[in-house]
Amino acid sequence: MSKVSTANFLTKQSKIMMKKGAFSSLFSFTIPQLIHGLIMLDFLIIGGGIAGVSAAARLSTHGVTLVLEAEEHLAYHTSGRSAALYETNYGSPSTIALAKAGRSDFDKTLSDVLSPRGFLLLCLKGEENQFDYDVKHMHLTEIPLMEAVSLVPILNATEVVRTASSSTAHDIDTDMMLQIFAKQLSKNGGTIKTNQKVTAIEKTKHGWRVHVKTGTFETRQLVNAAGAWGDEIAEMAGIPKIGLTPFRRSVARLNAPGGHDVKNWPVLFGPGERWYAKPDAGGLIVSLAEETPSPPMDAWPHDIDLAEALARYQDYVTEEVTRPVSSWAGLRTFSPDRNLVLGPAPQDNSFIWCVGQGGYGFFTAPAASRFVADLVIGNTPEYPTEVIAELSPDRFKS
User: Domains in the chain and their CATH numbers?
Assistant: First the structure.
């Protein structure tokens, strides 16, 4: 960063933060300063997916904030390949708690992000036990088969034996949601830099020094929102790995079956999430919902997974499956216990974990980002103690 751009960035940040009163005695953060000719950031977030951008937006009200994204644009990997479904009864107990806590954001600042979709669970003969479990766990309501057929006319009424529904599922406009948080960050004086792959991280007496190919950044607090690369970032910083595992999931896009208008159809699931189909852009996206371990990478779809997904979907419907018009894959990264990991590392409280979203990143982001910000500024998140413990990095301390 040149001296001129450094000075401009510093002036912009200082004016915005002073105007907001963010440097009051309530916080330990100070007016931006130069360390060895570099801006001393309060928060540097590694990762430009929804987890990183939303956390940055929250933190930017409390100090000078910068997001580094390795790719050419935000949300390139998992966030950009999401099925984009909001369902408050989906996931682990801590994930459900975050989803429900974030609903007020979706009703207010993110009010245009959600649109009604609905959820329909389908059951073939022999799948009744898993169906009953899913109905109970997800708080679904069993409905008559012909009522389900009225919702989705292509259901195979001779093979599907039971159905259950929910009206709480919504589509998420992921691009709009990402842009809302990015605009909040910018309004607070924060900055996003793309094409900034982190190459090295050093611990300093002031906090952290983060190196990219084009320069170096100094920060007091380092937020690791690097998704599938979260453990790699931790290792660079000298923080023990958590044991994150990225899992590949492949998706096929089909034209609308039989020429039907699918825009008002619910998302369809098989028991145990063995497959799903969701209306999208006038057609259907279909996935095996598989979890194939993968190294951190730019994932691609595997033909065998696509074929199996379409075969499973075909068992439940009357319209013959047509050739996919496109396909893609993404990585869903889980911690060992499949709960998100949010908050300061036990080894160094200036290293903040924000990883392990496991495919739940968008619908947990409003609450998860606030959870992280609360912990960073010294507030206790307003959750039951067991939920806080389930999300805390402390649970992985050896």
Answer: 3-79+174-242+338-396 (3.50.50.60), 119-166+245-334 (3.30.9.10)
